[in-house]
Amino acid sequence: DGGITQSPKYLFRKEGQNVTLSCEQNLNHDAMYWYRQDPGQGLRLIYYSQIVNDFQKGDIAEGYSVSREKKESFPLTVTSAQKNPTAFYLCASTAGNQPQHFGDGTRLSIL
Amino acid sequence: AQRVTQPEKLLSVFKGAPVELKCNYSYSGSPELFWYVQYSRQRLQLLLRHISRESIKGFTADLNKGETSFHLKKPFAQEEDSAMYYCALKAGGFKTIFGAGTRLFVKA
């Protein structure tokens, strides 16, 4: 099923480099989210956006940035300021009181 | 503070045995609770939500406001139930808080 598409599946970052993870949804959902998934820590919220051109920091926003120029797209940039970026990143979206729909995730590793 | 606690990181049961995955929450408002499941090589997906009060794949979960719990139960575990399970709390607005997850392993 379509819904939410995250790309790439695997991404490698060099020291000092910024990388951008893509998240696109065709569900017409207003809200979109980025989570970081680490073993034993569950999902931690990085950023979320309730509407276009608006977003809020989650619990672990330091070293990350986002934009929401279109309803369908919510890209996440992992900046060089994020000292421990190796993780699995999940994008999700929702509408109203509905549960969240998730993408397949992007695994980011450091070279 | 809003918090979701899943005390067990790993739960291992034999096929056919009952299973209970524990979830406790902390929230001063009216909670909306969910269980999400992630099977091997599949995306995270909703299993059930408390307002639906339905049984999905034999699983049920009852919201106990007095004990602030939303435990997930199944009377007879199957091998295909082996997965990672996350309890989640929708704490007003658009924000959802997830627990650390419990990995369920059902042995043959």
Descriptive report:
The complex is a heterodimer of chains A (111) and B (108). Chain A has 111 residues and is an all-beta fold. In chain A, the strands form two sheets. In chain A, strands 2, 4, 5, 6, 9, 10 and 11 form a seven-stranded mixed sheet that branches. Chain A has a four-stranded antiparallel sheet with strand order 1-3-8-7, with no helix packed on it. In chain A, strand 9 (87-94) and strand 10 form a beta hairpin. Chain A is globular. Chain A has no helices and eleven strands. Helices cover 0% and strands 52% of the residues of chain A. The model of chain A has no long low-confidence stretch (mean pLDDT 92). By secondary structure, chain B is mainly β. Chain B contains no helices and eleven strands. In chain B, strands 2, 5, 6, 9, 10 and 11 form a six-stranded mixed sheet that branches. In chain B, strands 3-8-7 form a three-stranded antiparallel sheet, with no helix packed on it. Chain B is globular. Chains A and B meet through strand 4, strand 5 and strand 9 of A and strand 5, strand 6 and strand 10 of B.
Give a quick account of the main beta sheet of chain A: strands, pairing sense, barrel closure: 7 strands, mixed
Beta strands of chain A, count: 11
The separation of the N and C termini of chain B measures 41 Å
Number of strands of chain B: 11
Helical segment count of chain A: 0
Can you summarize the main beta sheet of chain B?
6 strands, mixed
- Estimated helix fraction of chain B: under 10%
Largest interface, counted with CB-CB under 8 A?
Answer: A-B, 22 and 21 residues
Mean pLDDT of chain A: 92
Based on Cα principal axes, name the global outline of chain A.
globular
Structural class of chain B, by secondary structure, is: mainly beta
- Rg of chain B is 13 Å
| Secondary structural class of chain A | mainly beta
**What's the helical proportion of residues of chain A?**
under 10%
Could you report the average pLDDT of chain B, rounded to the nearest whole number?
Answer: 92
Give the topology string of chain A: H per helix, E per strand: EEEEEEEEEEE
Order of helices and strands of chain B: EEEEEEEEEEE
Report how far apart the termini of chain A are.
33 Å
Globular, elongated, flat, extended or rod-shaped: what is the shape of chain B? globular
Radius of gyration of chain A: 13 Å
Q: Helix tally of chain B?
A: 0
